[in-house]
Amino acid sequence: MIEEHPQDHRAYRIEILLVFAVTLGLSGLRSLLRLADSLLQPKPLDQQTVAINVPQARFDLLDLLAQLLGVVQLAAWGGLGLYLLWRGGTKLKALGLDRTRIGPDALGSLGLAAVIGIPGLVLYFVAWKLGLNLAVQPSTLDESWWRSVTLVLAAFGNAWAEEVLVVGYLLTRLKQLGWRDNTALLASAVLRGSYHLYQGFGGFVGNVVMGLVFGRVWQRTNRLWVLVVAHALLDVVAFLGYTLLRDKVSWLP
After folding, report:
1. Does residue 190 contact residue 171 with C-beta atoms inside 8 Å?
2. Can you spell out the DSSP letters for the chain?
3. C-beta separation of 229 from 106 below 8 A
4. pLDDT tens-digit profile of 109-166?
């Protein structure tokens, strides 16, 4: 085992600050400002809408390229966290990103997605009806031949960036800093909730709960693929399901 020195701890703290200052931590601060802006509007939260996947350009091809660049950014965020851990001596296998347990990981992902997805959907609708959440539109992309493909890629990009950074990277670094598992888990979950604040208080609480469950699963199993795939499945169902049902059911915003 490599001995940790005080200068290592200082370097880790600076590294964590910089990583999240350019990735999800900054997203959390922006999300807080967006929620504050929504609360200052004359309309209550449940009469306001917010969209996740939105058009980025007026011309179809340019919009496609912009959507793909967003996916590349998410992939790079996750890659940055992995690279820093690898440079510090952490192997991908220790994080659970190897391919030795494809079958069990797939089953675990399906189970975890079901455990989080159904209660999460109920929590969202309850929070929305109580006026604690905005009406969330998973996608407002125009109908196009590439829409479904980019939504699936965006789902996997989100899952990759979030689970690698907020779980694999952050929990590993906090453990190296001497944090207790429960304290690190709570910090990770609150961070996850913070960059969903733009959706409202329901979005924050729901994602904190998701962070507690996902983080604990990883702490006990060290299988990060389970989290990435489960998260991707949740987003794929939300993004594609919304585009298919939006104009066909009355209860969707």
Report:
1. no
2. -PPP-HHHHHHHHHHHHHHHHTTHHHHHHHHHHHHHHHHTSSS-GGG-EEEEE----SSHHHHHHHHHHHHHHHHHHHHHHHHHHHHTT--HHHHT-SSS-HHHHHHHHHHHHHHHHHHHHHHHHHHHHTTSB-EEEEE-PPP-TTHHHHHHHHHHHHHHHHIIIIIIIHHHHHHHTT--HHHHHHHHHHHHHHTTGGGBHHHHHHHHHHHHHHHHHHHHH--HHHHHHHHHHHHHHHHHHHHHHTTT-TT--
3. yes
4. 999 999 999 999 999 999 999 999 999 999 999 899 999 999 999 999 999 999 999 9
Beta bridge partners of 20: none
